[in-house]
Automatic annotation (TrEMBL):
GO molecular function, one term: 2',3'-cyclic-nucleotide 2'-phosphodiesterase activity
PANTHER family to which the protein is assigned, alphabetical: MANGANESE-DEPENDENT ADP-RIBOSE_CDP-ALCOHOL DIPHOSPHATASE, PTHR16509
All copies of domain Calcineurin-like phosphoesterase, residue ranges: 20-281
Protein name listed in UniProt: Manganese-dependent ADP-ribose/CDP-alcohol diphosphatase
Amino acid sequence: MDVKPEPGILSENSEVLFSFGVIADIQYADLEDGYNFQGNRRRYYRHSLLHLRGAIEHWNTEDRPPRCVLQLGDIIDGYNAQYKVSEKSLELVMNTFQMLKVPVHHTWGNHEFYNFSRNYLTNSKLNTKFLEDRIVHDPKTVPSEDYYAYHFVPFPQFRFILLDAYDLSVLGVDQSSPKYQQCLKILREHNPNSELNSPQGLSEPQFVQFNGGFSQDQLNWLNEVLTFSDTNQEKVVIVSHLPIYPEASDSVCLAWNYRDALAVIWSHKCVVCFFAGHTHDGGYCEDPFGVHHINLEGVIETAPDSQAFGTVYVYPDKMVLKGRGRVPDRIMNYKREIQL
């Protein structure tokens, strides 16, 4: 089992337990290159699919394939809805993912909801909840059907939790529903701008329409799963489209109630790292409680001669992100209390 990642990533010899792949913000569309909303960052809509193929080829040919791949949301761009090709573009990207020889776990971001309703997504191939692990003797760890979240175990003593950062959102929800009205009220209480995607003048700039939040029900569920992991001395990786730690992210891109999510996570010892997308820029910070927050660089803003994905190698005492292209390498040591 003494499998090492590529030379230069670690100076000492230590055993790799398993690995997993990470990729974010593919945002494919059959369009010429364009720019972000501020007009200062180039977006490579067509080429994002070639980057995805390159990542899959890499994962498929690793000496020891990853246990799974985490797709951190925004798989196709919102422009697809404008041109009425959402289903066609999604099918093209999902057919590309079928080349991957290991399971992929899909997170939902704002661009999923620009293209599809929540009901559509629940019944689509982007719903990978069938890959979940059920703790039969602990029913409180079973997620509600009201949000898209689940947990799974890719390797003994390691639990991965996929969160629904648009559980509270005005995107993808029927505008006549109580949930929409509730979320619109939350948004308007914090954002008086006529353009709800604008953070201009806001003391809490994350309260914009392209973000969302976690319901109290989902946070209660997260707390139950983390309690189980604490009790069973598991290490936990959390995945969300939206980041939750300000020092690792642009403040405009945070989840609405990121502080509530942090409060739950910080009340437990088991969480090693929190992976998110959304910002496209990437970011990293270890918080005061020893949780590593990684915002992955987005494929959509990655030039054709570069790349944007990574493989995380898991050791008994650390996780090591080996990045490709503009994704940097990271070493994420575990908190001392939970070393094996």
